[in-house]
Every structure is written in structure tokens, then in C-alpha cells.
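Notes from the 1:1 (GR / supervisor)

We went over the backlog. Supervisor wanted to see one worked example end to end before approving the batch request, so GR pasted a single chain during the call. The sequence is below; no edits were made to it. Supervisor asked that the structure be written out right there so they could see what the output format looks like.
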Amino acid sequence: MQKEGVLELKIENTLKKVKITVSDTGKGMPKKLFKQIFKPGFTTKKRGWGLGLSLSRRIVEDYHKGQIFVQKSEIDKGTIFEILLNKI
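Structure output shown during the call:
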């Protein structure tokens, strides 16, 4: 998000999983970038290293055996990420 926007976190508890939904009102992205954004070094910004989402994926998938993915994104409306974690 540039200067202003809304960031929303939702946590849902099911019998076997915890679902965390993170949504923002940022610039959004085309569907063709959904998988690419998790690669180290990928960024659409002029500044930054492009490590945030790749590190997030590594933590969620490798250390917690969960899943993280883009649920939905619309240009100029925002993006929704979903994280699924198994209950212990």
C-alpha cells in the first residue's frame, strides 16, 4: 500500500486447521504473478530486496508444514493472502 490503506487479518479455527487471511487495499497484481511473487529477489518496487514473501513462504511451508498462497487479487483494489496451518 502506498500512503494509506486498510490491512485486515482474520483467523478461523476449524477442527484440523487454522486459516489466517491477510487482506489489503493496495495496488493488487495480475494473476500471472501469483506464484512468481514468492521467489527470492522478486519485487515490483523500486526499493527493496524482494525477500519478504519468499521468507514468509519458507517459514510457513518448511518450518510449519503449512501453505501460503494468493487467494485473490484485483488491480487497484487489493490482495488477499491465505495461510493454512495444521493444528498440533
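Supervisor's comment: The longest helix spans residues 52-63.
Batch request approved.
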